[in-house]
Design brief:
The structure holds 2 protein chains of 2 kinds. By secondary structure, chain A is an all-beta fold. Helix content of chain A is about 0%, strand content about 50%. Chain A is built from no helices and 28 strands. In chain A, the strands form 7 sheets. Chain A has a 4-stranded antiparallel β-sheet, with no helix packed on it. A 4-stranded antiparallel β-sheet of chain A has the order 2-3-4-5, with no helix packed on it. Chain A has a 4-stranded antiparallel β-sheet with strand order 6-7-8-9, with no helix packed on it. The two termini of chain A are about 20 Å apart. In chain A, about 60% of the residues are buried. Chain B is α+β, with helices and mostly antiparallel strands. Chain B is built from 6 helices and 29 strands. Chain B is globular and about 95 Å long. Chains A and B meet through β9, β13, β16, β17 and β21 of A and β5 and α3 of B. Chain A: It holds the Pfam family Beta-prop_WDR5. Chain A: It comes from Brassica carinata (Ethiopian mustard). Chain A: One of its GO terms (molecular function) is histone binding.
Chain lengths: ~325, ~550
Amino acid sequence: MPSGGNGVGNGAVNAGTSGNTPTFKPYRHLKTLEGHAAAISCVKFSNDGNLLASASLDKTMILWSATNYSLIHRYEGHASGVSDLAWSSDSHYTCSASDDCTLRIWDARSPYECLKVLRGHTNFVFCVNFNPPSNLIVSGSFDETIRIWEVKTGRCVRVIKAHSMPLTSVHFNRDGSLIVSGSHDGSCKIWDAKEGTCLKTLIDDKSPAVSFAKFSPNGKFILVATLDSTLKLSNYATGKFIKVYTGHTNKVFCITSAFSVTNGKYIVSGSEDNCVYLWDLQHKTILQRLQGHTDAVISVSCHPVQNQIASSANHLDKTIRIWTQDA
Amino acid sequence: MNAPIIDPLQGDFPEVIEEYLEHGVIKCVAFNHRGSLLAAGCADGGCVIFDFETRGIAKELRENDCAAAITSVSWSKYGHRLLVSAADKSLTLWDVSTGEKIARTTLQQTPLHARLNPGLSSPSLCLACPLSSAPMIVDFEIGCTTLLPVSVPEMPDVLAPQQRSKCAESGPPFSPAAACFNKCGDLVYVGNAKGEILIVDYKSVRVLALVPVTGGSAVKNIVFSRNGQYLLTNSHDRTIRIYENLLPGKNVLSSLEELGKNVDGLDGVEKMKTVGSKCLTLFREFQDLVTKMHWKAPCFSGDGEWVVGGSACKGEHKIYIWDRAGHLVKILEGPKEALIDLAWHPVHPVIVSVSLTGLVYIWAKDYTENWSAFAPDFKELEENEEYVEREDEFDLIPETGKVKVSSVNEDEEVDIETVEKDAFSDSDMSVEELRYLPAEPIPDTNEEEQDELKLIEARISASPASEEAGQNGHVADHTSSPLGEEMGETRGKRKRKPSEKAMELQAEKAKSSKASGRTVREKSRASGDQEIDGSVNGVDDDDDDAYF
């Protein structure tokens, strides 16, 4: 159902641009995917761009085709809601993190089996990611620890007592040597993936909580979201925040953000005012607000090749919306 | 990329044993180009590839008809192929990603040392150094072996005899000579028993230059540094010598020919020596004057800054590290087992040493927590600094509100995509490097799941999150402790003879697969209360029954 008012009026191009930057072409709604029975906590495109996976508090994960957006498979097996999922680099496996304190590795190819169950956390597992070679998985949990698992055998390689409050996000950098972690205790820390030692702390204020942290595609910058409706881009080598993005609402939920690099550089994030926000990376101006969801937008994902964004929302909405940009 | 935040004050060499890898009895090891995979040859003829990041096994290469101990392993430049030489005189070439055998030949003698040509991306040419004959070039495609000259005859203008045959004839008995390729793989440097280094063009089987090693004792090992700038020889006179390579990186053959032409008036050995003096110059010598020990498996560090050598004495596992200027910086001592092989990681300050018992020890830096990492504005100081406070530092009401002037230019262009070129990639990266073997998760079986469930539930109820769960090489036996700890807790609370309750609890656990530890304990508490009320003896038996 095409929704009206996707904010074309708000797509005002930044005044300060010079002649060579292309004018921003607004995204429009393409499709709405229904299939989950509860709030959807995470959507992610696979690295090859052929598949889309979504995880929900209804304890299941759904695999969709990214070409025609039909439902391919529904993964069942977790005993509680799923908070996060991650794709392996070769797009063959996904890993889901659940409130039943386990992580599960699923096969993204037929017969779509659950290959492994990773046990060890003592509380809800909230965030998960593969490393680029996809031989390790990092997970963050409400038990305040980061665990690194070996994909092949499922053995827990390392436990890092990382924070003093639940972790909200973990991410490997481009060569898998560093892990960035964000937590409700307000700090964002960088860890050496091999040794498990803390290399740097980016923020250390008690509030606001850090709700999301991830590395940029080249591993030089970290995008940090805090629960005071702010997104910051930091050059982690110097520790300074070089860009700040505001305008959206983010005070309660751990909303994921993404870098969009397929056609111009943008920061994309969900918001508690039911919209998806797009900012220009360099100029920090809001380029577009995508409207259509009927509840807070919790997760966004950018297609690796095409100009498409997938967004998913909370309880009152329960849908995934696909937005596309006509080139 | 990580350089800015890693402490540059610490030396870049390993200090302690981090962990060990075990897979049968390992005889020799080799890192791939980037150090992401470690190939290890075993005494039972199989070869195993470890994923160095996870320290787990990535692949096993095994041939059913080969049961002889592996003597050496060697990777191709981009990691696609692995050459394995075994004690049954065979050389096998494997394709790493498929795990299939590409070729196999049998030589006249057992090759002690075999190296693939480092210049080609899919080499089928290799250098083999047998136990008691001259080093030879083995070509798998053509299927022929070529013996290399080991000495330059005294008579002028006699080139070393060409011996091309299907099976190598054993030449005059030579004592073992060591040989290695240069960085681009078009020359072979041979160190012979007379204490000379010969630079040989293996395609035309000609000795192009000769460098006499001071002391004139037999050369046991000859190794190039990774960047090809330094050459190391290990001689029978217990000295390791470092030579600087004066030849250019590319087009080595033509420069050698040039040098040869420019030397006029000299012939034969003299000509070789003169050309040789333009190829290598002696840089440093290392020896242990106190113990005068023989060295084993010397090699360079990945960046060529350090030289490492293992002591060849039986019964001790000592690794000596020198910096290139010649100073001994560290002696690493391992467990009392003889050392048989050594390898330095190409990128990280990590050393891998193989002991006689077949274990592979991984040596790494001893990481201490960097305290300045815990707060964003902490800075580590070398020494105490005098701090002069501002006038209004201790005022109750500061005069001006502290406004942190952001020194960062917020309008600067930010580049989130470009990646700097790796220091390790060569300019001719036409072939995709094999860095990792895909990790396919081994599917859980049902029994494993049940066992794991019981373990984890017991662990959750008994103790908080434990460290280093089940690392390779560390004994992690959690099966006995959780139940024992639970017993302890109930024991402490009840102070009764708990043997009956122990039986109950055990029975409960065995029955329920999904019961959480908490419910079980509650049940026992309930039954315990009943027992207290109903029982007669209030005597506290503090005896710790061993009921397992």
